[in-house]
Amino acid sequence: KDLFACLSTSWKQLQLHIRCAQPSQPHVTVHVCIPRRCSLGHGSRLHGRDTTSLPGFENLTMGYNKYLRPYFGGMCLHTPPARLCSLCQDYTATISLRQRWTDPRLTFHGNKSFTLDARLVELLWVPDTYIVESKRSFLHDVTVGNRLIRLFSNGTVLYALRITTTVACNMDLSKYPMDTQTCRLQLESWGYDENDVVFTWLRGNDSVHGIEKLRLSQYTVQRYHTLVSKSQQETGSYPRLILEFELRRNVLYFILETYVPSTLLVMLSWVSFWITLDSVPARTCIGVTTVLSMTTLMIGSRSSLSKTNCFIKAIDVYLGICFSFIFGALVEYAVAHYSSSQKCATKRPANEPSKEMEEVNITNILNNSITGYKQKISFTSIEISSDNVNCSDLTMKSHEKIKCVLRNKMHRIFGYFTIQNPGNVDHYSKLLFPLFFMLVNVFYWAYYLYF
Questions:
Q1: Cβ-contact 65, 123 below 8 angstroms
Q2: Fewer Cβ atoms within 10 A, N terminus or C terminus of the chain?
Q3: Which residues pair with 243 in a beta bridge?
Q4: Are 16 and 77 in the same domain?
Q5: Residues 52-71: pLDDT tens digits?
């Protein structure tokens, strides 16, 4: 009743005329109504100049000291996280923070509530809440400061404000882009310890609104819950409220951008297995092109994250696997082509030395005696079959025998790895490369999705 009586009192009207600098242009007339002095309660008077009070509510705030805390109540939060940055290891959120407490010094008669101008918050006591691990924060002030002060008859004060803040979030990117990140929004009292104020969520998990309807570009909110904790500092134990939410990255974008192109490059490198070994330019061009394309894809995927990030991510493992298969296809052709050229080289001297030896033997027959001719033939036969010579039967020094034995051993070892038919290399590669690539993919996706 007192409030309506106050509003029904006479108003003093003040008319301001604001004119532009040039008299030829139109002017604007603004009407501002200033109420006369009124108060809630009977017989109230204005305080002295040194007393801080709410204008129009001098009787309500008589003896009120904003530097002394009252009883403290609950808190609720409307927080839709707007952006989460893996590069910066933080997230940016615009939150509507609503704090509620009871101040018995602000009780008045009736069961009504009224909203005060936000600028009057400077005349009231408000809790010193701050956001833990906040990097940057600001209060919205368009068109005025986005704050709300509402008083209830029982002395309850509702203080709401709209804040945009950037909060640190330590992320484990070892399973990127199939990772799940858990971030926190923590509210704590800066100066009042738990003996002075107690922070509680007003309605538990229901105190947080907006997260379930949140839509992000790379993440999906899996779950969230609220916690009440304490922060132990050197100056005491301070109350802390925690909102913990779990975000799962949407992997479909990365499958289309990175996984599918890298898999297609691996399959492209297998095309060279169906090209003959004699087509050197074609097979070399396919191998080098796929290697360079894969290198470019790897550099592009790593540039999206911080260079100081030391995690070996899941996407790096897959790109490394694809690069290994592409490089292996190029090495396979090098081995097959080298074996083929070596086989052709061994076939040519098998016929040519016979002709040369015939010419040499004819010359020896004409120029030397029959005895010399026999010695030459016997010596040549020993040189040709030197690989199968029993070194123990030859009259040679000990170190020469050791060299001969080692030479025979090396020839046998190389014989095990000698490819008798280079064409079989491509034949087996057509089956082994796709088979091993499929097995590696099965283990890769099973590990990163289910473990």
A1: no
A2: C
A3: 185, 226
A4: no
A5: 555 555 556 666 667 666 76
Domain boundary among 65, 100, 121: 65
- Phi–psi pair at 343, nearest 5 degrees: -65, -40
User: How close are the terminal C-alpha atoms of the chain, in Å?
Assistant: 67
Calpha distance 448→451 (Å, rounded): 6
pLDDT tens figures, 236-271: 999 999 999 999 999 999 999 999 999 999 999 999
CATH number for position 85: 2.70.170.10
The confidence band for 444, taking pLDDT boundaries of 50, 70 and 90, is: very high
At 142, phi and psi to the nearest 5? -115, 125
Instruction: Please give the structure tokens belonging to residue 196.
Output: 């002075």
Q: Specify the 3-state DSSP secondary structure of 427.
A: helix
3-state class (DSSP) for residue 58: coil
Secondary element (H or E) of residue 440 = helix 423-450
Q: Does pLDDT of 133 surpass 90?
A: yes
Amino acid sitting at position 226: T
Judge whether 336 and 284 are in contact, CB under 8 Å. Answer: no
Domain ranges, residue 431: 258-384+419-443
With vertex at residue 157, the alpha carbon angle to CA 76 and CA 132, rounded to the nearest 5 degrees, is: 40
Amino acid at 300: G
Contact 153, 110 (CB under 8 A): yes
pLDDT of 424 reads: 84
* Residues 6, 56 contacting (CB under 8 angstroms): yes
For residues 12 and 51, membership in a common domain is answered with yes
**Whether residues 161 and 266 fall in one domain:** no
Q: Which two tokens mark 217? A: 């570009």
Token pair, residue 222, equals 């899996």
* DSSP bridge partners of 286: none
Structure tokens at 62: 């008589």
* CATH code where residue 350 lies: 1.20.58.390
